[in-house]
Amino acid sequence: MHPKKKVWIDTDLSVGMIRHRRPGYCDVDDGYAVLQLMKSDQIEITGISAVFGNTTIDNAFMLCEQMNRDFAGGKYGVFKGAGEAIQLANVQTNDAVEALAAALKKEKMHIMAIGPATNVGLLLLRYPELAGQILEVVLVAGRRKETDYFSIGNQGRRAQDLNFDLDNDAFRIMFEAKVPITLCPFEISSKVWITEEDLKNMDQLDPATQWLASESRPWLGQWIEQGATGFNPFDVLASHYLIAPDDIISEPRLASLEIHLDDTLLDNPRRQFKSYLLCRDVGQYPVKYCYDVVPDYHQRLLQTFQ
Ligand SMILES: [Ca+2]
Question: Does residue 29 sit in helix, strand or coil?
Fold first, then answer.
């Protein structure tokens, strides 16, 4: 038997929340990633921390506590992290950063950071000596080139690279600390779809999976309004990679941080610029870039919730 892989979860859980910046419901994908790790016998969760992102830090923290209480018997430590991006001129700590530091002092572990990487960035600024204790940070961000748009549905909507966009500096800090980085970007998650048929199958499973299916329906409805037939469960590619890396196809790339025109504002006459996390043949920082799944991936994904 292989020893279990130790994984710290850092998440901007927003399952079932109303968006705080514009109308509509929030992403449900963190819920799939957290529940998949909770259910896996390959993984030992070493702690769960919340970060702002898809929703406010208070909502994300409340949902971390709720999932831990309702679906894991409260057995994990749950910690509140950053409510905003790193301010380099005023670096703060928080409960999540201190708890993660204490855990890393005891043992090496992987970190699944499926929101903005703010808590990991803060940790590396305050405790640079702990960089060598981080076996890998698995993140949901990046693309090959600035013209690889994140297209949602067929109405022309383009999504941001939200986890990166909300805290560019956190990524730069991780790269400069030379922490091993694995990226599960839009390129891979755009190949995986969850449909109403999948939710109906999840309705027949355990209460945690039933809850996730039920809370996913308003989110699925928004994707159908955008002309899609399902939704891409972005963050679950990160959790699945940690559980079963052989199901995920990756290649080594070199990441760079570059500034180009904002691709989400193409029709806006007052177009602005933004930072991009680009993963090319040439670049500055080595990353493992996950870009495809095995042919029977959809079935394998749903089996992990059985
Ligand atoms: Ca997330």
Answer: helix
pLDDT, tens digit (0-9, with 9 covering 90-100), for 100-132: 999 999 999 999 999 999 999 999 999 999 999
Residue 291 backbone class (left: φ over 0; alpha: ψ -120 to 50; beta: rest): alpha
User: Measured in angstroms, how far is the CA atom of residue 56 from the centroid of ligand 1?
Assistant: 12
pLDDT digit string, tens, across residues 262-300 = 988 777 777 799 999 999 999 999 999 999 999 999 999
- Say how far apart CA 285 and CA 279 lie, in whole Å: 9
CB 153 within 8 A of CB 227: yes
The Å distance, Cα 114 to ligand 1 centre, comes to 4
* Side-chain-facing half-sphere of 249: CA atoms under 13 Å: 10
Is residue 77 classed as helix, strand or coil in its secondary structure?
coil
Tokens in use for 46?
């070493």
Q: Which whole number is the average pLDDT over 156-163?
A: 88
- CA 165 – ligand 1 centroid, Å: 13
**Mean pLDDT computed over every residue of the chain:** 95
Question: Could you state, in order of their start, the residue ranges of all structural domains in the chain?
Answer: 5-303
Query: Pick from 168, 150, 146: which is nearest to 160 by CA?
Result: 150
pLDDT(14) > 70 = yes
- 3-class SS of residue 254: strand
Neighbour-count burial of 115, counting CB atoms closer than 10 A to its CB (0-12 exposed, 13-18 middle, 19+ buried)? buried
Signed CA dihedral, 106, 111, 113, 116: sign only: positive
Cα 29 to averaged position of ligand 1 atoms, centre (Å): 6
Homologous superfamily, domain 5-303:
Ribonucleoside hydrolase-like (3.90.245.10)
Q: Residue 152: which pLDDT band, with cuts at 50, 70 and 90?
A: confident
Band of pLDDT at residue 1, cut at 50, 70 and 90: low
Rounded CA-CA distance 216/182 in Å is: 27
